[in-house]
Design brief:
Strand content: under 5%
Order of helices and strands: HHHEEHHH
Strand order of the largest sheet: 1-2
Helix content: over 70%
Number of helices: 6
Shape: elongated
Number of domains: 2
Distance between the termini: 44 Å
CATH topology of the largest domain: Arc Repressor Mutant, subunit A
CATH architecture of the largest domain: Orthogonal Bundle
Length: about 130
Amino acid sequence: MPLRESGEDYLETILILQQRTGYVRSIDVATELGYSKPSISRAMGILRAEGFLTVGKDGQLILTEAGKKRAGEVYERHLLLTRFLGEVLGVSAENAEEDACKIEHVISQETFEKLRSFVDKAESGIGG
């Protein structure tokens, strides 16, 4: 079953919070995204059922290998798109971040690879 945009956002948020603090609970995700605890609880149940995360006895959210992989892919797209929009096109930081968050879910793998190649070339041309 394909993961919806909201599921990708949750996985990405868990990954970012884990990198930031090392320990993530549902309440942390709710606070970060500004969603209600019941909404997060339902979403975490779906992600757990789909094999993207486990929940420890203490409530810690732990990404499975599949969850880490998917979250990493989404986050990589997000970072590259933000860089492209902001640094290459000159979009304001706020708009680059907001637009990247939308585009990261719909961009094809082919387009993403071409964009990554373009950004790498553009950056090496600027710095080297």
